Amino acid sequence: MEKQYKTIGEDAWKNNVEKVNAELFIFTYGSLVVQLVKDYEDYAAVNKQLDKMGYNIGVRLVDDIMARTSLERCSGFTATAEVISKVGFKLFLNVAPSVASWSADGKEFSLIVDDNPLNDFCELPPKAVQDGLWYSNVLCGVIRGALEMMQMQTEVEFVRDVLRGDDTSEIRVRLLRMLDEEVPASDD
């Protein structure tokens, strides 16, 4: 199944995505983070804003992924992890993090991001590292928002980041509960 998702992600990247100049995207994101730091002057608040922005993006990305790939709803959390890694990340960032460190109950996993494009051309000041800035925290929000649209309430957080001196970047995804599908209120 993993190879199938990898192929779907690569095909979608090659054929169904309008490409944006990577450097422009990276510098624009960096400018956004710098502006948030200036506006909030508190790294915890910046992390929260990045997560919130990512969540709003993730809510909309699910439909885009479905439209571009013709994927059907995932059969379980394991398949969902593979789709996030091999299709979602590939489609939008042209990277495919590895899925690792599953919990015994199958409700937690890590995405190991060896090459995070958002980190290119970036170096965090020591104070930002010390005070807890997670520069790419927008990715956590994107994952959380996308999974919520798939009826999965999750907790998503960075646990390691190369910009903070770690050897790799790791995002931890924890399934809290499956959400009930709600029928929209009628227009009567």
UniProtKB/TrEMBL annotation:
Q: Pfam families, per this entry? A: TRAPP (PF04051)
List the subcellular locations: Endoplasmic reticulum; Golgi apparatus, cis-Golgi network
The protein here is known as Trafficking protein particle complex subunit BET3
Originating species: Coemansia thaxteri
Q: Which GO terms describe its biological process?
A: Golgi vesicle transport; macroautophagy
Q: What is the lineage of its organism?
A: Eukaryota, Fungi, Fungi incertae sedis, Zoopagomycota, Kickxellomycotina
InterPro entries per the UniProt record, alphabetical? Bet3, NO_sig/Golgi_transp_ligand-bd, TRAPP_component
The record's Gene3D superfamilies line, in alphabetical order, gives: Trafficking protein particle complex subunit 3 (3.30.1380.20)
- Looking at the UniProt record for this protein, which Gene Ontology cellular component terms does it annotate, in alphabetical order? endoplasmic reticulum; Golgi apparatus; TRAPP complex
Q: Which family does it belong to?
A: Belongs to the TRAPP small subunits family. BET3 subfamily.
> Which keywords are on file for this protein?
Endoplasmic reticulum, ER-Golgi transport, Golgi apparatus, Transport
Q: Is Transmembrane there in the keyword field?
A: no
